């Protein structure tokens, strides 16, 4: 399922505002930063931005990136291609796309890289009772959000029932034998969709590369998935903004200080399908238990954790469950979760788990216990 930009670095918010309004006066729009000095102010900064996975990315490296902008862009593009080559369902040459097109229940050989990704996705899916399900692909296609393209009419109950018969973790298997890994369908119609973790996976890969290079400060935003470390160019805490779900632009609803943690957000309010016969809107977020788009009032769920790929997987599942269940899950599992829902009067209502609260306080706090 395609995800769009829901968590934004504050610099990205300002950049978006400048593009939609005017270039004059944008410098004055930047929000005040916290006073805490966490690193030295940087005299050299490397910044790049661009498009990937059908959305935008922004990368900032205070102190400069070895080799400058050109090297950083080349490294980022290499990682984006690596991720896409493994998990894209749109690129016919990608591993997942080729597996989806494999009309057989025989073993399908995959790379060890993809096998590791699948193992983690399956693990996270089970943590949220399969509310995030990698086999959702056929339902995504049925509702017009997949590679097969748009539809004009919502599917029938019979079509949904038939499609659900080959959706679920029990409809495929992943195994390793020596140095080789395999995927096998239990039904030739099974199709995997890993787009929900693509942005987080890319952010993690970029963060790992920067750690290997010894960089102590960076901000990586791949659409709704963010990894940050150290301080911003002013030597102060990085701050990110959870997008206002009711705004037409890139307006911040809540400021968060990640404190070197990954943060990602899933939202249901930007990508939808309009049934031209009934004039009803359907979210792109599919509940595999019903085979239909979610229909509750929760529009945004953010998760903090060590890995952006993990938070990217969890935020989608928790969005499917809804705000109340998402926050309860966060409290039960000591995971920082922040949810926004729209009440019956059309107003936003935010709730969050106990462990999310410290990240709403944008000051240096050495007593914060990060999520495990």
Kindly describe this structure.
With 372 residues, this protein is an alpha+beta fold. It is built from 9 helices and 18 strands. The chain has helices at 10-20, 68-87, 95-101, 112-127, 137-142, 157-164, 195-212, 308-321, 323-332; strands at 7-9, 45-52, 55-62, 108-110, 172-177, 180-185, 218-222, 225-229, 240-243, 252-256, 262-267, 272-274, 281-283, 286-287, 292-293, 298-305, 337-342, 348-352. The strands form 5 sheets. An 8-stranded antiparallel β-sheet has the order 2-3-7-8-11-16-17-18. Strand 2 and strand 3 (55-62) form a beta hairpin. Helix 2 (68-87) runs antiparallel to helix 7, helix 4 runs parallel beside helix 8 and helix 7 (195-212) runs antiparallel to helix 8. The longest helix is centred in the first third of the chain and has 20 residues, at 68-87. The chain is globular, with a radius of gyration of 20 Å.
Describe this protein with a few key phrases.
372 residues; 9 helices; alpha+beta; 24% strand
Please give the share of residues in helix.
Answer: 25-40%
Major pleated sheet? 8 strands, antiparallel
Helix and strand pattern: EHEEHHEHHHEEHEEEEEEEEEEHHEE
Number of helices: 9
Q: How many beta-strand elements?
A: 18
Could you say which overall geometry the principal axes of the C-alpha atoms support?
globular
**Which ranges are low-confidence, i.e. pLDDT below 50, for 5 or more consecutive residues?**
1-34, 271-275
* Gap from first CA to last CA: 27 Å
Which strand-content bin applies to the residues? 15-25%
The secondary-structure class comes to: alpha+beta
Mean pLDDT, to the nearest integer, reads 85
Spatial extent as radius of gyration: 20 Å
């Amino acid at each position: 399922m395609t995800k769009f930009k829901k968590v934004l670095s504050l610099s990205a918010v300002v950049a978006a505002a400048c593009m939609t309004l005017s270039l004059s006066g944008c410098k004055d729009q930047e929000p005040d930063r916290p006073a805490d000095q966490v690193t030295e102010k940087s005299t050299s900064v490397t910044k790049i931005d661009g498009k990937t996975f059908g959305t935008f990315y922004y990368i900032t490296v205070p102190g400069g990136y070895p080799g400058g902008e050109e090297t950083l862009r080349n490294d980022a593009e290499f990682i984006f291609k690596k991720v896409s080559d493994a998990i894209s369902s749109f690129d016919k040459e990608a591993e997942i796309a080729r597996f989806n097109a494999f009309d057989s229940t025989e073993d399908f050989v995959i790379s060890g890289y993809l096998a590791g990704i699948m193992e983690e996705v399956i693990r996270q899916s089970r943590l949220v009772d399969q509310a995030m399900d990698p086999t959702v692909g056929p339902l995504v296609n049925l509702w017009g959000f997949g590679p097969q393209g748009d539809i004009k009419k919502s599917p029938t109950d019979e079509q949904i029932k038939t499609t659900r018969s080959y959706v679920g973790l029990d409809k495929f298997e992943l195994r390793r034998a020596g140095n080789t890994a395999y995927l096998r369908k239990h039904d030739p119609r099974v199709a995997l969709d890993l787009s929900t973790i693509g942005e987080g996976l890319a952010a993690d890969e970029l963060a790992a590369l920067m750690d290997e290079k010894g960089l102590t400060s960076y901000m990586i935003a791949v659409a709704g998935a963010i990894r940050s470390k150290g301080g911003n160019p002013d030597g102060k805490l990085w701050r990110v903004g959870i997008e206002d779900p009711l705004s037409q632009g890139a307006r911040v609803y809540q400021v968060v200080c990640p404190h070197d943690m990954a943060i990602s957000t899933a939202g249901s309010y930007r990508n939808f399908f309009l049934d031209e016969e009934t004039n009803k809107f359907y979210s792109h977020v599919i509940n595999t238990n019903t085979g239909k788009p979610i229909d509750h009032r929760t529009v945004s769920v953010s998760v903090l954790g060590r890995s952006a790929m993990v938070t990217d997987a969890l935020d989608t599942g928790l969005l499917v469950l809804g705000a109340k269940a998402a926050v309860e899950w966060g409290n039960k599992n000591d995971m920082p979760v922040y949810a926004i829902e729209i009440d019956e009067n059309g107003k936003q209502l935010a709730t969050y788990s106990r462990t999310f609260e410290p990240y709403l306080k944008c000051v240096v706090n050495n007593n914060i216990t990060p999520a495990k």
